[in-house]
Amino acid sequence: MVGNKKESDFKSSLVTSSLANDSTKQGQERTPTASAARWLDDVVIGMPLCPFAAAARNGTRIVQINTDASQEDIIRQISSEMRGLAAASLDDAATTLCVLPPNTQYDDFVEFMNEVVAPCQDVADALWDEINGGLSKEEEDARADVQVVPFHPRAEFEDSPDACVDYSSRAPVPVVHLLRQADVDAARVTWPLFGGDDTDGQEFLDLPAINSRRLRRVGREKLEEMLATCQRSATVSSEDRIAAHPADVRTEADGEALLVWAAEQGANVDALRVVRTSPTDMGAVTSRPLSRGEPLFELPRSLAMSARRLAEQSDVPYAAAVRSAMDACSEEDAEVPLAVALAAELALMRSKTPGPLASYVRMLPSLALLEMMHIDVADRKVLKTVLADTLLLTDLQARWAWLDHARATAANALSEGNCDATADEIAHAFALVASRAFALDGEGDDQREVLAICPVADMLNHSPLAHDALLTCLDTDEGSYGVRAHCDYDAGEQVYDSFAGAKLLASDTFVRYGFVDLRNGDPEAIRVPTSALRLPESSEAGIALLDYLQLSDVTVSADATSGIGDDAIGAAAALTATDDELAEAGWSGDAKHDNDDASSAALAEDVLASLLSLAPVRARASSHLQATLSSMAAHADLAIERTKDGSSFVVASAHASVRNESCALHGAVRALELRRKRDI
């Protein structure tokens, strides 16, 4: 699965539901080990603070230490865990969390460090001497080098540059983390493989600095809230009686009817209930406790309804309209046939002759609700005003242009299929598909991704912390789909899925899905179209070079040390170089270049490298890029002011996205200044 989008995602992370706060306060206390496990799954892996923790999760042992015993007995318990870890095979990722319960003397951080952590470090040193004392370097057992890493709810360090950074060492309960140096060394080797995009231009030892930036982006308030959630089970029950927003006409009875209908279609949904989670949201909660890795639900393949599947079903009255849309569209327009199907279902509902998906359609958010939450149906005039001259508006306008054409295509298909859908119903349907459809792996020999509507699956709200909680194929033989729990869930607790671990920029999530959620501290980054870097005097040969390289945009980030890459400066170089300079670098505007020729592709890359090696070109490119990005940052700063008092979820999300844009552009400008000083 590539990604999944749901209506509940529209809620900006800046607009926090009162339910989430109340349920965190009123929920049941988790056991100490359960709190530590949730912290490991949601914070350490979910953010992620440690890119290797996910791979080692199945080999992680979590044990509770008996603190009623004497200090010597406590150290003895942890020492026993050290020996067990040292004896484990190096072929298996292994680590141990020794958890101390709250409400003891070790709630004091200094007491914890002096009375538990320091003696444990002495034990670790003694263990090394005991096992490897007198042995040669070649004979030493690497497993005996056990590291002791403390985590504590009140961890605080004098040299922290920011209070948020202390959260890299904070856990909901006191924890002594035992890990082997051999595993750390292995992680160092695999860092480029597991580190993700954040590792670009970074070294393994930069991980603390990367985490510091990530934690500061999330902010102290949200970090504290995340730890509080780890300590308590945030259950949601019908007894909460959350009042629905007037624009949201869905009820929990509709949710129950959806599950009954899905079960009749062969789905296993016994572990779920659908309840109201906020005035504008419905969500799925557990009907019983669930263990990490257990399926939250299981859907037969027939409930993964692609346009092709709907077009082939004899009981679908709008099948002809869907087929017409499929014939008129390319793969890039996969949303159109599904929108046709939903528009037809909405029209049937209006005419009091519900279609085959009626139980599902009743659980879809109304157009009035979506107009407050999703950019596809939001007030364009308002967004054009508050986002004037920003890159975000440029992205939105491209989406709107495609959307206008797609709606016209859908209207023609519906007319040809004799379906009486209104313009509002078509617009409503496109917003639903954009926010709820799933991109699934292809079937059989055709492995191309398929866009599909998946009832029940889209009742799960999205969380960027739900690591690898993806809609995927659970049983190849039976052809069933489902989502596995990314952590242990208590009964009545809301369950979540994720976006397949995709590294989505804030602008991506806002433009495509209508929300911005940076709880996992994704970096502030923005894509700048290379067309925005063009000058009136830009050489046609330089423009052709970028077209040939398919360099339509470059990504810049807030990281002042790596926020500007050679691709951005290279694009500016191509657009500021003269014809003579391009020719000197080996590129001619009238040269015949074959895009399919590997040697020609290498030539173009060499040309860009040659341009960057010309000092006058590089200096001119850097100066132009800095001026352009500074101007863009100034426009983003103005938009921040215009959106800060947004009266809707859309404007609040736009505010979050444009703040991200400003931060990325200012960071890129600082990065350019550093690079220019270095070049000088």
Automatic annotation (TrEMBL):
Residue ranges that the Swiss-Prot or TrEMBL entry lists as coiled coil: none
SUPFAM superfamilies: SET domain
Region feature (Disordered): 1-34
Transmembrane segments: none
Pfam families named among the record's database cross-references: DUF1415
Compositionally biased residues, Polar residues: 11-34
Biased segments, Basic and acidic residues type: 1-10
GO molecular function, one term: protein-lysine N-methyltransferase activity
Domain of life the protein comes from: Eukaryota
Cited PANTHER family: UNCHARACTERIZED PUTATIVE METHYLTRANSFERASE
UniProt name for this protein: SET domain-containing protein
